[in-house]
Design goal:
The protein is an all-alpha fold and about 250 residues long. It folds into three domains: about 1-60, no CATH class; about 75-215, no CATH class; about 220-245. Helix content is about 75%, strand content about 0%. The chain has eight helices and no strands. The chain has helices at about 1-15, 20-35, 40-55, 60-70, 80-95, 120-150, 155-180, 195-245. The longest helix has about 50 residues, at about 195-245. The chain is globular and about 70 Å long. The mean pLDDT is about 80.
Length: about 250
């Protein structure tokens, strides 16, 4: 599993997409912990990975993001512009917001307002009430996902439900943390809210799988998955035998 994760992270870093790779790493280590992996193995892996992370963080543009994150008002018209405009959007909303469709920050003031910084527009248009509602919905999603994972009849589906829940909620947590200035800026969409067809499609597929598990069909799903793996292995074995015969 670790090699698979590192392979996907390598592909993401070639983009470069450090935020996606970092989130994938968090999900993987969380799954290791849930599955009962010894902590010494996790710490050893972390020690090997840490130098690579430090090397990636030391890239000039990433260091610049970190320094700007610490004090975006130091350069509000250049490097810190996006974060400052996000703060202005959140602050402008007040308790009840300025009204749906009445956002001023989305009029070319706040970059990526329909994708990475959609949460800022929610805060501006719907205010504190909208922000709390969105947070509440993600908390509910997390709690229901963990319950589905706990009630799953098979171990495979339990891990699957845990992973899908973490995939969505950790991404939401990272996005909200970026928008509110708690972590450096990363290019992560807010699940179910940010504009983007592929992200929305993947999230809905994840939800549909979790719904199937919650209905008690996870045992059938597990059997189908095992049958698919067996068929795939048989196909690969037959292909190797044909190659040897040639």
């Amino acid at each position: 599993p670790l090699l698979v994760m590192l392979s996907f992270q390598a592909v993401l870093l070639l983009q470069p997409d450090f935020g996606g790779a970092f989130t994938l790493g968090l999900i993987t280590f969380a799954m290791f912990y849930i599955s009962g992996t010894p902590l010494r193995f996790m710490f050893t892996t972390l020690l090997f990975v840490l130098p690579v992370v430090v090397k990636l963080v030391m890239e000039p543009y990433r260091l610049k993001r970190i320094f700007i994150f610490l004090d975006p008002w130091k350069d509000p018209y250049a490097s810190g512009f996006q974060l400052v405009q996000s703060f202005i959007a959140l602050g402008s909303g007040g308790f009840r917001g300025v009204g749906l469709g009445e956002s001023k920050q989305k009029l070319s003031y706040l970059p990526e307002v329909n994708t990475d910084f959609i949460f800022s527009m929610v805060g501006e248009e719907i205010g504190f009430i909208g922000v709390v509602f969105v947070l509440f919905m993600f908390v509910m999603f997390f709690s229901r996902g963990i319950k589905i994972a706990g009630d799953a009849k098979s171990l495979f589906c339990s891990y699957l439900a845990h992973g899908l829940t973490l995939m969505i909620t950790l991404q939401a947590l990272m996005n909200i943390a970026v928008v509110t200035g708690l972590v450096p800026t990363k290019g992560l969409p807010l699940p179910f809210l940010s504009y983007g067809g592929s992200s929305l499609l993947v999230n809905f597929i994840a939800v549909s799988v979790m719904l199937k598990i919650s209905r008690g069909d996870d045992e059938q799903l597990s059997v189908q998955t095992q049958e698919m793996i067996i068929k795939r292995r048989a196909h690969l074995k037959a292909r190797r035998l044909r190659r040897k015969a040639q």
